[in-house]
Design brief:
By secondary structure, the chain is of the alpha+beta class. It has five helices and seven strands.
Length: 166
């Protein structure tokens, strides 16, 4: 019986930790298109296991002196995917923006800081926002963060104002 429990726990942990694996294949719909020519771009995809990440994120935010409203926003997140692109280009970013427009994502904010651009787009259904895409770009390096959860427009506006104030 003890060996059965050990095997069960091992298999269960392997199942939970599989989302921690870093991949060199894109994990977002637009970049998974096989017919698109990425011209030497290199991808790194990470699926963030939130049951492991949320406590660390909340602690880091508290240590940085963030207010409880930002920490409450983290509680509403249900899934995060991160995709980094090395050697990306402006055409790829333009095509990605066009793809998002075609799929009903609204541009909520563009923040410029030290030559880098941060763009926030949301997919809104009534008063509910289920998906937020954050794009960070600087020259040829791009970072895409796909955040799924249950947000309100006020949550997103509060987050944008917190970032903009700093």
């Amino acid at each position: 019986m003890k060996i059965f429990k050990t095997i069960f726990v091992t298999i269960f942990m392997m199942f939970l930790m599989q989302s921690c694996i870093v991949s060199e294949k894109p994990n977002m719909a637009f970049f998974s298109k096989s017919e698109y020519d990425y011209k030497g771009a290199k991808f790194v995809s990470i699926n963030v296991p939130l049951f492991l990440a949320k406590p660390y994120i909340k602690k880091a935010l508290r240590d940085e002196g963030e207010n409880e409203a930002v920490i409450a926003l983290v509680k509403k997140v249900s899934k995060i995917k991160v995709l980094t692109v090395e050697n990306g280009n402006k055409k790829m970013l333009k095509d990605y923006a066009s793809y998002l427009n075609d799929n009903n994502y609204e541009d909520w904010a563009t923040i410029k800081h030290d030559g880098n651009n941060v763009n926030i787009r949301v997919k809104q259904n009534g008063e509910s926002i289920k998906n937020m895409l954050i794009t960070l770009n600087s020259d040829k390096d791009l970072v895409f963060v796909d955040v799924k959860g249950s947000f309100t427009p006020e949550d997103i506006s509060r987050m944008i104002s917190q970032v903009s104030d700093k």
